[in-house]
Amino acid sequence: MTETASPASAAPVPTRTELFLAFVRITLSGFGGTLPWTRRMFVEEKRWLTAAEFNELYALCQFLPGPNVVNLSAVFGSRIHGVSGAIAAWGGFLLVPFCVMLTAGILYERYNDVEAVRRILTGVAPAAAGLLIATLAKMAVPLFRSFGPAPFVFAATAFAIGVMRWPLIWVMLVMAPLGIALAWWWRR
């Protein structure tokens, strides 16, 4: 099953090897989170997906069990080359980080009492948060351009979870059907 990632896209269909290496590159770049790097590669560099397609695919992966970007790798690989594409993308996404984290865990076990190690780890957190906020802003632009209900549902969801500290499951159980109903009503 070989099909393009996007019917409107002129980008070549990546091979299984290209999928594997793309996800290896993403994981080597993505300290503190890989979503910014995944979006950058898929939308801006390789043009495998449009911004709207990426948002839709990522939204689907939010509802699947497990880490969102890991789900994204499997779903995207599957869309391109079926099961073998999913395995190639998933393997590229997880193989190197597994080896790096295994090594980091062993090193941390040995050197966790060194003050320099603590300072480095403290400094990495704000950088990761900044990357996540920048990616959120890029992903929100297509939503706000449409002037549909999506920006308001998004803002209400973020407010309910981030500010009000309401449980994620209850907010999603209310906001997902509400968002679907509003989108349906808006497009009638």
Brief account:
The chain is mainly alpha-helical and 188 residues long. The protein contains seven helices and no strands.
Task: Please provide a written account of the structure.
By secondary structure, the chain is an all-alpha fold. It has helices at residues 16-29, 35-45, 51-62, 68-111, 115-145, 150-163, 168-187. Helix 1 crosses helix 4 (68-111) and helix 3 crosses helix 4 (68-111). It starts with 15 loop residues before the first helix and ends with a helix.
How many domains? The number is 2
| Mean pLDDT value | 84
Strand content: under 5%
Low-confidence stretches: 1-9
Order of helices and strands: HHHHHHH
N- to C-terminal distance:
34 Å
Number of helices: 7
Radius of gyration: 19 Å
Name the quaternary structure.
single chain
**Shape descriptor:** globular
For the structure shown, list the relevant keywords.
disordered N terminus; 2 domains; 7 helices; mainly alpha; 78% helix
Layout of SSEs?
Elements: H1 16-29, H2 35-45, H3 51-62, H4 68-111, H5 115-145, H6 150-163, H7 168-187
